Amino acid sequence: ENWLAKNQAYKSLYEQSSGDWLIFMGVDVRLGVSSLRAMVHYALEHNKHMISILPRRFNAHFWAGFASPLRYFRELVKINYNKRNTPALSTVWLISREAYESTGGMDSVARKVIPEQYFAGELNKKKQYAFVRTNDYLQISTAKKLQEQIRTSLRVIYPSLHRRLERVALSVLFFFIFMVLPYVFSVYYFIVGQGGWQMLAVLITCGLLTVTHALITSL
Q: pTM higher than 0.70, yes or no?
């Protein structure tokens, strides 16, 4: 009763494992022939006890490819004021058995919706964590349809906001004001034919948002 099902499954898998390194990943992940070796080699080469990996997409429809960077944007723009609020993705993450056990293992995050964020935060304080973008060496990719991404968001974001409707409302308002409203204003100013510094500010904001989205998409 005190466990989330996914976290309990992680604990059960850990108890059945025997290696010095643990790799957790989603069912929609695809690995290259040397991905496991490459992940461990990267961690050892950079003296890291945990890495979380930003994958490539494959066989993705347009809207799935358009929406997925928004999830990555949510991670990448975190304010890391205490070295715990660091980017981490559940898609693929590797952690040494030593680090896993020293931070309390899954028992420490029995009901945490995003358990990897806890381990990343604790190890980042010791400079033992890295958020890594995949490449031709790591060869890690994923495919998730738009409907699956929406279900993931409902399953992850709402509980991570402690199921507080006011927090959800503020989050949605923040997203709308900073990510959507500039485009709405640009259309409005274009229709009414209004220029001036307001129009310039809106166009610059829309340009920066578009470039940011394009850059994350290309990553």
A: yes
